[in-house]
Specification:
Elements: H1 6-20, E1 38-49, E2 58-69
Antiparallel strand pairs: 1-2
């Protein structure tokens, strides 16, 4: 009795078809961005106007804050 090649060919063809239909692996997870850095600078200006003896003196203080996020 001679072994038949037909069952072996059918199983090999079936294995080839099933492996071709397999889905690709999922993509790698995205790289997390580095945390943002925030730096703030505060500038304070004082303006004095008027004459202290005659009109009265006025003092104005201006505060300015500048923040940068990188």
């Amino acid at each position: 009795m001679k072994p038949s090649l037909k069952p072996m060919l059918v199983s090999a063809a079936l294995a080839l078809l099933l492996s071709a239909c397999a889905s690709p692996p999922p993509p790698p997870p995205p790289i997390a961005p580095k945390p943002l850095e925030r730096t703030c600078d505060t500038h304070e200006d004082t303006d004095v106007s008027g004459n202290m003896t005659a009109e009265g003196q006025t003092t104005r203080t201006t505060t300015r804050t500048v923040c940068v996020t990188q």
